[in-house]
Design a protein that fits this description.
two-stranded antiparallel sheet, six-stranded mixed beta sheet, single chain, alpha/beta, 6 helices
Length: about 220
């Protein structure tokens, strides 16, 4: 996923950068800069790389397939951007076509997860990174995006297996980031300001979905 190897003297270089950052802060007289903000500056300093495990997933049982680096932005959420939202999408195509699109650097968009009609979950972007999925930068930075295989005008595509698998996934995300299980924090792509998308569409059963998420939220993982 576009990672660079840390240099052998990385600790020494980081130490110098820490001094530079600290000196800049002191020179500006910014006594109000919090420790978490310093940490945010630290990891964004050129040459500093946080360790990533290749193929690691955030949701147990998900299969990892990496999206193109062009379709997401490296981040350190929730330390740099808080996560307080899940955004529901429908692919307007097959599962395979969605995976292919998200691996294509020319597509310029991808979600963190895709849920297949049989309930299989694939993760393509780590939750700590910002996926280009909402069509709104602020919403991208604060959300996890979940695609669902199917078409918005075909209610038969929205299977029970998909609803249940997606609800368990959303419940785990909400638990991990302390996101309230309500319709202010679990929304459809159509509800994102400035978007021209209509998914998950008129056949998405929000009452059913939210009921399943609440049930899964109270069930031990």
């Amino acid at each position: 996923m576009g990672q660079r190897k840390a240099s052998r003297d990385g600790d020494r270089k980081v130490g110098r950068r820490a001094l530079l950052i600290g000196g800049t802060v002191a020179a500006a007289g910014s006594a109000l800069l919090a420790r978490d903000e310093l940490a945010r500056l630290w990891w964004r300093t050129p040459g500093v790389e946080k360790p990533r495990e290749a193929g690691a997933v955030d949701y147990k049982g998900a299969r990892w397939v990496a999206a193109s680096d062009a379709n997401w932005r490296r981040a350190d959420r929730p330390d740099d951007f808080g996560i307080d939202m899940v955004i529901v999408h429908v692919t307007q195509g097959s599962f395979d076509s969605a995976v292919k699109a998200f691996r294509d650097p020319g597509h310029k968009a991808a979600t963190h997860y895709i849920v297949r009609q049989d309930g299989h979950v694939t993760q393509m972007i780590r939750e700590l990174d910002v996926a280009y999925h909402a069509g709104n930068r602020d919403y991208n930075e604060r959300s996890v995006g979940i695609e669902h295989e199917g078409f918005v005008d075909r209610p038969q595509d929205l299977t029970d297996e998909m609803y249940e698998a997606s609800a368990r996934l959303t419940a785990r995300i909400c638990a991990r980031y302390d996101i309230p299980v309500d319709r202010e924090h679990i929304i459809g792509h159509v509800e994102v300001p400035g978007t021209d998308h209509t998914d998950p569409g008129p056949h998405w059963d929000w009452d059913k979905y939210m009921r399943l998420v609440r049930r899964a939220r109270t069930t031990p993982a």
